TrEMBL record:
It comes from the Bacteria. Residues 1-27 form the signal peptide. This is ABC transporter substrate binding protein. It holds the Pfam family ABC_sub_bind. InterPro entries: ABC_transpt-TYRBP-like. Keywords: Signal. The keyword ATP-binding does not apply.
Amino acid sequence: MINKNRKYTVFIIALCTFLLSAWCAHAEETAIVIKSQDLSAYNQVVKGFQDECLKNNITIKSIYDLDGKMKLGQKIVRKIKNEKPDIVLAIGVLAATVLKEEIDEIPIMFCMVINHARFQLTEPNITGISTEIAIEDQLKGFQSILGSFKNLGVIYDPSKTGNIVAIAENKIRNVGMNLVKYEISSSKEVSAAMEKLIDKIDALWLLPDSTVVTKQSFGLIKTTTLENRIPLLCTSDVFVKAGALASVSSAHKDVGIQAARLVGKILKLPTPGSLGIVYPDHLELSVNTDTAKILGLELKVVQEDLKINFYP
């Protein structure tokens, strides 16, 4: 009788252990998404994130939109804390900075923050996907259509993109190229900068710098580079669609997919924390074929491991 009871007890323990293991294996982890505003690019990130979370048994409890208003941040943060997700995805700089200031007990993943280093998003609970592409990858993409070139010009405001230029300068020098720099502090100086640079460069690199790039200045930059047969190289396909020659960037939906995969890795850590800042893992080269014709370029050679988009 004692042996039977022992066998029964062992069976019950084994069954409970099995059921608990099975439950843990299938237990869903939860995430919340907060967007800085309702933009098409951000919505594409959300779509990629949703699709990949579904594949990885991660439930998205809520999606919040700050509508570009900092004041909504406090209210939404209270909701997030009440919902107690395992992790929060912040899309855009407003969402990222709000969460950084208000949440330190929940892991945060951010993306779509231009020049993230300016906002010091480096807390123990924060992981991010850089919007900027590694300069080495940008150069490979540009060289795949231009061939080798020596002097890459850049106009920048040190207070906005000085950190990007400083990092890029060393990388560019290491591959035997020159970064020809021109500092400005006002968009009114763009015209003078173009005059100084245009005869000294083989291509112009346009950074996401709000001092340099305005609606008026972009028109001037595009016209001047075309007239002088200088390729205009960018970090976003938005400018390629508007007439720049080429950009190397990440696809927004791919960023969402990558974010979901990183979330999965974070939640599997013994103590969920930070994986640091990573570069996008899927890149695309965008080329304006009309601009290429004006510049006299034959688009025959492209980098095989890059997705290619041709505009218009």
